[in-house]
Amino acid sequence: MADAHGSQQGRGGERLEVAASVLALLADRTRLALMERLGRGEADVATLTEAAGASRTSVSQHLAKLRLAGLVTTRKDGRHVVYSLRHGHLRRLVDEALNVADHQIGLLPPHD
Predict the structure, then answer these.
(1) CA distance 59 to 31
(2) Helices 88-105 and 29-38, packing angle to 10 deg
(3) What gap in Å lies between CA 89 and CA 48, rounded to an integer?
(4) For residues 38 and 48, is the Cβ–Cβ distance under 8 A?
(5) Where are the beta strands (DSSP E) in the chain?
(6) DSSP code per residue over 7-20
(7) What Rg do the C-alpha atoms of the chain give, in angstroms?
(8) Is 107 helix (H, G, I), strand (E, B) or coil?
(9) SS3 state of residue 111
(10) Per-residue pLDDT reduced to its tens digit, 65-75
(11) What is the C-alpha to C-alpha distance for residues 85 and 37, in angstroms, rounded to an integer?
(12) What's the pTM value of the predicted model, to 2 decimals?
């Protein structure tokens, strides 16, 4: 039983490391804006640039980081590259972070 527990504990540490790196990537206003927009559906760079309110160069760099981290995927649509979230967990994570912000800004009481 000790071996199984030790193995599970090791995976728990890996899970925490990966979760911390995901949260660190999302701890940027531009990347969070991109993820929030992609949570509503796939989009090209022009749409994402407008949604993030940043320069196209900046948005492209942030998207590259998100793609390399495996948080977003791409597909070609003619000459356009279209981005989407890798899975719904990311949409829910971003939604919950924004819900917390709404509570803090609006001075709303916490709830479950």
Answers:
(1) 8
(2) 120
(3) 20
(4) yes
(5) 43-44, 72-77, 80-85
(6) HHHHHHHHHHHHHH
(7) 17
(8) coil
(9) coil
(10) 999 999 999 99
(11) 10
(12) 0.85
